[in-house]
Amino acid sequence: MIRDLPDSQNLLETALASLRAELLPNLPDHARYTGLMVANALAIVLRDLQAAEARRRIAETLTGLIGQDDAPALCAAIDAGRFDEPAPDATLRQALLTITRARLSISNPKALG
Amino acid sequence: MSVPSLSPEQLQALADWLTGQAGAATVRLADVRRLSGGAISVNLSMDLIIAGGPFAGCQPVVFRAGSPSGVSASLSKAQEAAVLRAAFDAGVTAPEPLFVQGDGALLGSPFYIMRRAGGVAAGHRLVKAPPSPALAHDLGQQLGRLHRLRPGAPGLDFLPLPAADLLDDCLTAYRGWLGEMAGLDPALAYGLRWLDRRRPAVGDLVLSHRDYRTGNYLVEAGKLTAIIDWEFAGWSDPMEDIGWFCAACWRFGRRDQEAGGIGDRADFYAGYEAATGRPVNHQAVRWWEVMAHLRWAAIAVQQAKRHVSGAEHSLELALTGRMLPEITHDMLREIDQMEAAA
């Protein structure tokens, strides 16, 4: 494999830094909201490129619940009532909080607080 | 912006039509400006300069028309105007609708024109002001006034009554809006299951705003000037609007201010109880707060699909789809608190 230099993560980081430092402060009012949305979108993609650990945690948590890294299978088990009793319900809820926090670390880490 | 504004020819046609509607000698449209926040509707601010007739003078108004791709469950513009009329007549601080064009013959889509109120609606700005017991109380009172309207109220026959079971209706609708996501995202599957298992008692049906939250009312100098965005109105359990208003996802970061990020839950409830003479069912409101998160998640999925399907390319809609983890996180925390307290 031929490596690109810089890699995509570096390229995106650099683009985002330029957007924040040089473009956003100079945007007219009517374009500012769009500018902030673009910065937000790029930041999500950047965090997604660095999210191996979050993905590993999600897979591990799913496997702990139903023996496989399979979100649709977990949905089906929930629908079928397999977690309705108080103890499995509590275990499931804590696991879903873990999974959701891992996803939030990509989409909006500020909301983790 | 994907929804086109009005062309000069359309503005002229509107002025001519208004001249007849207002029984005026002439109507001129001045200071026509596009208003933000129109994900579903085209909103234009304008001043009607009216000569002659009962509306003579300068009338600050908002023109509101539907967008090409509506969202499930939203009312037509003529229906929305009828709800606004009923709310206004019931003493709710809602903008008075003045002129309604219901068949779309004039401009291609139905529209109505209502009085324009001053003030700020943006949630992230309103929650920066010091918490206001008076505003929370007033917003509770306004909702109580709206909830005095029951099925059979004049002018609202077009609003469908829920099937035998309101909660079944809601859960089925939101499951439908989520589509395949309900089977792919375990947090959504869990929310649906939990809501189904923990149903509260349902109260008498009342006219409900169904998007009653910070962001959908205007405040000027600390005072409420108008409750807006009535397109989801319908008959529902009175606790639904209260739960939607108080849900963590609509506090704009001010989690400690449980009434919409602007005040205390107790003040909001007190205003509501003063207007209705009926107590708030605290447990049921909490359930509806969980439901609020599920519904907001379902709306976010729909908005994302509008973008992804190509029906309406929009960065804003795309980013709304990526808000799902945040919404379900709040929902799970809410369920967790309720289960801990049970």
N-to-C series of helices and strands of chain A: HHHHH
- Fourth CATH level, the homologous superfamily of the largest domain in chain B: Aminoglycoside phosphotransferase (APH), C-terminal lobe
Judging from the principal axes of the Cα atoms, what is the shape of chain B? globular
Structural class of chain B, by secondary structure, is alpha+beta
First and last CA, distance of chain B = 47 Å
- Quote the average pLDDT of chain B: 93
Radius of gyration of chain B, taken over Cα atoms and rounded to an integer in Å: 20 Å
Number of helices, where a helix is a run of at least 4 consecutive DSSP H or I residues of chain A: 5
What is the count of β-strands of chain A? Answer: 0
Oligomeric state of this protein: heterodimer
Largest sheet of chain A: none
Number of strands of chain B: 9
The CATH topology of the largest domain in chain B comes to Aminoglycoside 3'-phosphotransferase, Chain: A, domain 2
How would you summarize the topology of this molecule?
The complex is a heterodimer of chains A (113) and B (342).
Chain A: H1 8-23, H2 29-49, H3 52-66, H4 71-79, H5 86-107
Helix pairs in contact in A: 1-2, 3-5
Chain B: H1 8-21, E1 26-34, E2 41-51, E3 57-66, H2 77-89, E4 97-101, E5 111-115, H3 123-126, H4 133-146, H5 166-178, H6 186-197, E6 206-208, E7 217-220, E8 223-227, E9 234-236, H7 238-246, H8 265-276, H9 282-308, H10 315-321, H11 324-341
Antiparallel strand pairs in B: 1-2, 2-3, 3-5, 4-5, 6-9, 7-8
Helix pairs in contact in B: 4-8, 5-9, 6-9, 6-11, 7-9, 9-10, 9-11
